[in-house]
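mind reviewing these tokens:
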Amino acid sequence: MNYLTLTNQVLAELNEVQLTSSNFVSGAVGIQQTTKDVVNKALRDVYSSELEWPWLHSDKIQATFAGQKEYALPTDYRSVDYDSFYIVPTELVTNSTFDSNITNWTTSSGTPAYTATGNGRLRLNAAAAYATLSTVKNKEYRLQVRLIDSSSSGSSLKIQVGTSPAGTQNLSTTLTIADFGDGSILDIKFTATASTSYLTLDNDDSNNLDVDFVKVSENIAPKKLTYITYDDYRRRFLSTAQINSSDQYGVPDYIYKSQDGKFGLYRIPDSDGYSINYEYWKTHDDLSATTDTPDIPARFHDVVIARTKYYIYQLRSDPQFTQFAAADYQAGIKRMRIELINSPTQMLDTRVNITKTRGAAIGG
């Protein structure tokens, strides 16, 4: 239900005049305006009844910067899962999966094209395209390419990395597919020789080769970061972090929550080539436009309606119906917790204790 439908649902159960899309924003008066306001109040109650409702879950990727140890948390966060922090190498290819277009890829020859096949692909038919990468000289990088043969068999794609488009100073290899419709993945390493590198994909033949994804990142293994408290960070590392020493820089191992809405890393990142991935739960916005819809799944909108009626019956000094609405709301919140949050805390081993069973049988 949208904002208008939720409001009218309550008004209908109260036997009051309902609103329309034309008078909802500025034409509501009396009980209509009160009901509109209380719908948002009821939504806030539902949101606040748990800290980590699934529909408020979000993911964040934070790029790191060499020498910077603290980073702001998202402005809309209400709770952060500090056990979910991972450090991963930063993806260097802009538009690496071609989800909706092939922008950020420059034509070298022919006419590279976008195809909506699969989840979106770069199609090369007697064509070549290249991407520009920001690299660090003498650092090792990992390149992954997935290729699909869409029109023939025995097709090959030339993959080159160098200091200019079609350059081969860092890498020159071929990815071949033997069977029509099949796919193949190249996973290879190269060492950059300049601060700007060019990755070129080239299909000389007149046949459709589809590139599903192209990924390039520094050759760093993803790593889970260990959470420590701010007090623990101060006790163990702050004195070291304040000394101008190379020992404090490197690949981070620890994550801590600062006291000003940020998270910190130790050791301090020594490169721009890392990204921090983590999960958090966001805040919500009140409904305002007629067609605004709450984040709450539609099957639980009746809980919002029950809470709205609770407040309206309170205003009308109707204790009996206030109690009925309160009971409906509490039952709805319980149902939501059971369906959306509760989960088994341990696995139950249902295997038969063979030794004990056999012993009992023998003894009998």
